[in-house]
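Appendix B. Chain record.
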Amino acid sequence: MVLAMQRTDELPERVRIREVGPRDGFQNEPEVLATADKVRLIDRLARTGVERLEATSFVRADVIPQLADAREVLQQIDPPDDVAISVLIPNERGLDNALELRDAFQEINVFLSASETHNRKNVNRSIEESLTGLEAVLGRAREARLRCEGVISVSFGCPYEGDVPEERVFGIAKRLRDAGAQEIGFGDTTGMANPRQVRGFFEHAREALGADVELTAHFHNTRGQGLANVFAALESGCESFESSFGELGGCPVPAGATGNIATEDLVSMLHEMGVDTGIDLEALLAATHDVASVLGRPLGSHTLVAGPVEWHRD
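C-alpha cells predicted for this chain:
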C-alpha cells in the first residue's frame, strides 16, 4: 500500500479500526436484511484488511428484529483467522446466548450512557443499574477469555441533558475498567462533539484511566464534524476508532441522530495523511457498493461517490 503523504510527528504511524456496520448499521435499517446478505457482506469486510469487526448483537428479537439472526450469522461467517470478531452484549442473558457460540468470536462490547435520561430512554435503566449488570457481564466474559470493551454513549454531550461532565464519564469508565474492560470506547452518539472538546477530552481520559487501557473514539457525523473530531483525537494520541461502512447506523433515540462516520471516508483521510490502517480502500469500497445495492438507496459516504484520491505521482 502506497501512502499519499509523509506523516507528521504529531500523528500516530498506524491506527486500529473496528468496523461496526454489520451491527450498528444493520440494526438501524427499517427493513431486516437477509441473513445470506449479512454473511456475504461481513465476509467481504473481513477481507479488506480490517483487524476488528463487530458482527452482531445478542439482543431480544422483539426489541431489535434486525439482529434476530445473530446465531445464524455467527455460525455462517468465515472470517480470516487474524480478524477479531466482536459481538455486542446487553446483559447476562445475552452473554449466556453468546457463549453457546464462544468459538465464533473473540471480543465482546458492553454499553451504557453517560446521562441518566439517555440511558433510561435507550435501555430503560439508571446508570447505576446498568453498571451493576455490566460489571457481572465483564467478569464472566473475562473468565471465558474474551477481550472486553466498554462503550459509553453520549460521552461528549447529551441531547436531553446538554453538558455531560468529564468526571462522570471517566468515573463510569473506571468502573468498567476495574470490572475487566481492556478497552473503553467513547461515543459521540448524536454528533454533539467539536474538535477542541475532543482534543482535551482524550488528553484527560488518558490521565484518568492510565496507560494500560485502550482508548477508542466512536464519532457520528450528525452535524458533519466526524472526521474533524477524528483528527483532534489523533492529535491527542488516540489510535483506535470505530466506524461503519457507507456511514450506516445512528442512534435510535432521539430522532435526527444520523450515522457513524463512514469507514471508507476515515480510511481515505488517514491514508492521505500518511497514517496506516492496514485496510485496502478499494476492497472496502467494493463492500460498500455491495451494501448500497442491497439497501437500494444512496449512502452518506463521500468516498463512495467521489472515489479514492488519484495523485498520478511517479
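Further analysis of this model is presented in Appendix C.
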